[in-house]
Amino acid sequence: MARDISRIEAADFAPLPLHPSSDIDEIRRLWSQPLRLFRLANALRRRCHGDEVSFVINRNINFTNRCVSSCRFCAFHCSDGGYFLSHEQILERVADAEEKGATEVCLQGGLAPGMALEDYCEILEAIHGGYPRMHLHAYSPMEVMHMSRNSGLAVEEVLRHLKASGLGSMPGTAAEILVDSVRQRICPEKLKTLEWLKVVSTAHRLGIPTTSTMLYGHIESFEERLQHLQLLRELQSETDGITEFVLLPFMPGNNPLGPMARQPDLLEHLKMHALSRVILFPSITNIQASWTKLGREAAAATLHWGVNDLGGTLMEENISRSAGSKEAQYLSAQELTDLIEGQGRRAVQRTTLYERI
Ligand code: SF4
Predict the structure, then answer these.
(1) Is the pLDDT of residue 19 over 70?
(2) How far apart are CA 2 and CA 251, in angstroms?
(3) Which of 17, 222, 261, 286 has the fewest C-beta atoms lying within 10 Å of its C-beta?
């Protein structure tokens, strides 16, 4: 029987074994031989997905940028002033998304001071009441922790309330690099590795799927990236609740971490997508590239390096743009289809949970 990962302690995660089917030397060899890595990742991608590349029609809604935290990589938060969307403004955006064929809205915001569980639930209920078919993909593990702290309720209770209010799934953001010594340097106020794992595994246990992410290309080492991927593999083998893995390249603009970040070149980005496919195979089979962070041309190139999903149309993108992204805020379904077909692949529209539309 699967272990209940939400009840395990820090000791259960340390020391971390490496990928059971390959050792660190083999992973290093692959990393240093891009052609071999590319071929392997591409073969695994084809085995899982044939020639299909998926995307979802969705809309991001960043309902506030007020935040009590100050992660060093973040150019989005505002500790003084900032904006807060009203329910009416949120519902206007949802109506616009529905008109454009969206099946999902993705809601994330800063950790607004004093914002308690009922405020988050009311947003979900307002949308769910008016647009019951819209999938609500909402609130990062850090936001769940923020609700828990502000409301004095356990994480599990918070998640139960969110689900009852219409939550369909959660973004597995706030993961950054799941190594506490790195977290201490880039986001010291954020939840720790074990807390992230506990929030996400509790969500899975309650029937709330999540994505998984990695923010890479700043101060982390190669080994720390591997450790992060290994933790996600372990989590997935326990809960099977992760729908996809999204690589999020660090954006260096307008944030204190930017000047000290080692910025990967295009080849390193491609290799990182390929290596993620290889290490996460076969437990996480959907590997997603972020067109908003990489730019659409590099994102298209990743389709030859193990990637089978290009995420969503977004319609509104504030977080990468604050950190210097020059990419558009919106790619229509037709533009995503053209991008995919331009690489000789078949474009497939999907739901948040990877059902075909
Ligand atoms: S990443 Fe999120 S929690 Fe951290 S400062 Fe930015 S908005 Fe706040």
Answers:
(1) no
(2) 38
(3) 17
